[in-house]
Amino acid sequence: DGEAYKYYADGEWKKSSSGKLVPIINPTTRKVHYKVQACTQEEVNKVMETAKIAQKSWAKTPLWKRAELLHKAASILKEHKAPIAESLVKEIAKPAKDAVTEVVRSGDLVSYCAEEGVRILGEGKFLVSDSFPGNDRTKYCLTSKIPLGVVLAIPPFNYPVNLAVSKIAPALIAGNSLVLKPPTQGAVSCLHMVHCFHLAGFPKGLISCVTGKGSEIGDFLTMHPGVNCISFTGGDTGIAISKKAGMIPLQMELGGKDACIVLEDADLDLVAANIIKGGFSYSGQRCTAVKVVLVMESVADALVEKVNKRVAKLTVGPPEENSDITPVVSESSANFIEDNVRPDMRIAWEEPFGPVLPVIRITSVEEGIHHCNASNFGLQGCVFTKDINKAILIGDAMETGTVQINSAPARGPDHFPFQGIKDSGIGSQGITNSINMMTKIKTTVINLP
Ligand code: G3P
User: Fold this and answer.
1) Mutate which of 163, 257, 288, 351 to test ligand 1's pocket (most atoms within 8 Å of Cβ)?
2) Is the ipTM of this complex over 0.85?
3) Burial classification of residue 316, based on how many CB atoms lie within 10 Å of its CB (0-12 exposed, 13-18 middle, 19 or more buried)
4) The pTM is what?
5) Which of 71, 206, 253, 311 has CB atoms 3.0–4.6 Å from 425's, for a disulfide?
6) Active site annotation includes 287
7) Phi/psi at 283 (nearest 5 deg)?
8) CA of 342 to the centre of ligand 1 (A)
């Protein structure tokens, strides 16, 4: 019937006063596998209060101590990789091996973040006034980076652990407190991960994890006056959040329609391998999945043949068996993916978030660039050619946050900047950018007589 999990607030595991539970369906069995608390707005208010109080003393905790705790959390996370990976398999049908990779990658992200935080938060700037016209050397300006306050983190279902820690770790190293609202599918993995932070010994109330229905607490959380920053990864909901949120910094990653442009001189075996990896890993449920191939007509047949041969070899089955194609996250998602594979070309523009890949034949590079740029999205893109000069020129012309030359789009390594333009997001992620984004500059000016 599904084991029930408590939510995490004030350093304790609690049952919601609502007495209600939200079921989590295992996509493979389509049966309820876990249940999580349906937290109330009142419980959110309490979490916000404690987060605010906890943040004040955390900001005064020495930077090296904050880093030490994060390193501890990172190693506990890695020690607990098996149970966390198990819940990823059951909640979101992530292939078992990839689930372990997600947890290990997350531990590495937390450690790197602690190290980077010590470096970049440990230094500030010193300016003197006489470098600006009309000023004597009578003012010394000192700058430092201070925390924002309470950061609200909302990760998506496809990387509930990794895309949660990519928000949690920068927030904490920078001296913020953190409220996590996990996706429903992925909530138990998030709770397991939060347990690792709990074991590391972070102060009470500094991290909380509230579970529940978006319809009940979603807007309430994102519009809460106690929130000083929102870091969100997900779909269209992000656009609604950005319209409703107050005057606070937002970090948003809202999906993509990553194009793969293939020129005549490309190594077609390399392209085919990357199309398979980019288009079909985790059944296409990645924001950075290759979602449209724009291939020069003269090599299109050869490429499609190579891709088809590899597609035929993909295994379809349960995540426990490390199948290449596992069940997509929900029945409605499966229906959406099937319903939209029609020749009227909506698939050429929309994000299926499934193992479906349209191939469009182009007769010029310009045509490829034009299709890529006509999209509302602008997350990543890739170009395959042996001519580096052409690759760079095409990359510069593609209106996306990142262009990969001769490889499929991907977010990682996690210290690389990661950003989308247009409907793909606001701000830039990656460890260094996230730490900076979750701080503000404070200046002190010493006025000399
Ligand atoms: O879909 C989430 C997005 O961040 C993809 O990450 O690591 O699969 O490129 P990744």
Assistant:
1) 288
2) yes
3) exposed
4) 0.96
5) 253
6) yes
7) 50, 35
8) 26
